[in-house]
Specification:
- Strand 9 and strand 10 form a beta hairpin.
- The chain is globular and about 45 Å long.
- Helix content is 26%, strand content 33%.
- The longest helix has 20 residues.
- The chain is built from five helices and eleven strands.
- 29% of the residues are buried.
- The chain has one domain.
- The chain has 187 residues and is an alpha+beta fold.
């Protein structure tokens, strides 16, 4: 009887512990409700997209204050501006989420030039959450969570932005989606 009681306590405490320690970004799912952002219609990114939203902290935040602090703590951002392809033109990259007519969610990067003109979109099917951040270090990186290795380098190749997943498992799971995103990316 003592062994059964011990096992019950162990199972219960491990479930409670896992609930308390589970990272919020693993379950983050934002529901986009607008059909356009920054003057860009969701359908102009992909003919299948119905809704789009830019992820943000601050005014109109899609995250709580604590979540924004967690993002900031690792020097990640939801919007970055810079000349990442070294062509003398500043661009702004936005982390966004989209939803298509079949209720499929996508993690999206929107690229606009310094004049606010839409240049390109990169997107991947979202599996369990719609969270993604940008990290601008030596390279521009698209992270799918905090404190994990799910990331892609955003690289300028042949006058377009591309995702370089290397051997990253998220990208390998999403290979067909990645090819679609590269093929359908706007220029």
């Amino acid at each position: 009887m003592k062994n059964i009681l011990f096992l019950a306590i162990l199972v219960f405490s491990s479930e409670v512990f896992s609930e308390v320690t589970r990272s919020w970004w693993l379950d983050y799912r934002y529901e986009p409700t607008t059909k356009q952002v920054l003057g860009l219609a969701a359908k102009d990114i992909s003919k299948d997209f119905e809704y789009i939203a830019i992820l943000k902290c601050g005014e109109g935040a899609t995250f709580s204050t604590q979540q924004c602090s967690d993002i900031e703590e690792i020097s990640a951002k939801l919007t970055v501006t810079g000349d990442f392809n070294k062509n003398g033109v500043t661009e702004t990259f936005y982390s966004a989420v989209a939803k298509d007519s079949k209720n499929t969610y996508y993690k999206v990067i929107l690229v606009f030039d310094v004049n606010g003109i839409f240049k390109q979109a990169l997107y991947e099917k979202a599996f369990e959450n719609t969270f993604s951040v940008l990290i601008a270090k030596h390279d521009l990186i698209w992270g799918m969570c905090l404190y994990c290795g799910h990331l892609a380098f955003i690289k300028w190749i042949d006058d377009k932005w591309h995702l370089d997943w290397a051997d990253e498992d998220y990208g390998l799971l999403n290979k067909s989606s990645q090819q679609d995103a590269l093929t359908r990316a706007s220029a």
